[in-house]
Write a structure and sequence with these properties.
The chain has helices at 12-47, 56-62, 82-87, 91-107, 110-131, 138-150, 155-167, 177-199, 203-215, and strands at 9-10, 64-66, 175-176, 218-221, 226-229. The chain is mainly alpha-helical.
């Protein structure tokens, strides 16, 4: 079994952004798969002319809620809760997305990696345009929101990265695979810490957070098959 080429130099731009992009693509794919499954379930029930009818229970079972925890298509117009998107991502999904980004850095060309980053940014930008208000500042706010999702690192991770580059890499602009894994592992551990901090927060803080999430969530229901702000 060949060893991992830890000393291999990788694409600098993708090293900064690829993990976030991979996480976003995976989460959004899972979201739409789940939405499609629920809507297909509702359609199958309608075709079978279920005796239950369109009751509240049926609507809850087949509706889907997208909030700042789960989707870039949430009603968080300014991207204020973008950090929660990654904080609420499970450890398994973060590990899978990190492993995928490592594999892509090794197997794909710089053009392909940059295309993935640009495509993900375009997806979040389009989502930001879709959920934003129709004002002349919308394109600028959508760019700002997309940037907050793509550049997901917190000030702590940014500070750690600068110290690492200055002390370990001696200011070099190229990154090795082992440096990339170190950066992203620190980011993952911080997300786990932040999630534990939120879970252990006092009741008032959790109530305030839930209100902010509810105000910005997007809901789809089987009755209309359409989106509306909750």
């Amino acid at each position: 079994m060949p060893s991992v080429p830890w000393s291999t130099h990788i694409n600098f731009a993708s090293a900064l952004l690829l993990h976030s992009c991979t996480t976003i693509l995976m989460k959004e794919t899972l979201n739409w798969v789940e939405i499609a499954r629920r809507l297909l379930t509702q359609r199958r029930k309608a075709q079978q002319k279920s005796r239950a009818g369109p009751g509240i229970t049926c609507a809850v079972e087949t509706s889907a809620i997208l909030d700042a925890y789960t989707s870039v298509f949430s009603g968080d117009i300014n991207g204020e809760l973008a950090e929660l998107y990654f904080t609420n991502t499970g450890l398994i999904l973060l590990a899978v997305s990190l492993a995928s980004s490592v594999a892509m850095n090794l197997l794909l060309s710089s053009v392909a990696l940059n295309t993935i980053v640009a495509g993900t940014f375009g997806l979040v930008f389009a989502a930001s345009l879709a959920v934003g208000h129709a004002k002349y500042t919308l394109p600028f706010m959508a760019l700002r929101r997309a940037g907050r999702f793509i550049w997901s690192d917190t000030p702590f991770v940014n500070f750690f990265s600068l110290i690492y580059i200055a002390t370990v890499l001696k200011g070099q602009s190229t990154l090795r695979l082992q440096d990339y894994v170190t950066f992203r592992s620190i980011a993952v551990f911080e997300l786990i810490f932040m999630k534990a901090k939120l879970a252990a927060a006092d009741v008032d803080t959790q109530i305030s957070l839930m209100r902010r999430l509810i105000e910005r969530q997007m809901v789809t229901t089987p009755e209309t098959y359409a989106w509306h702000i909750a």
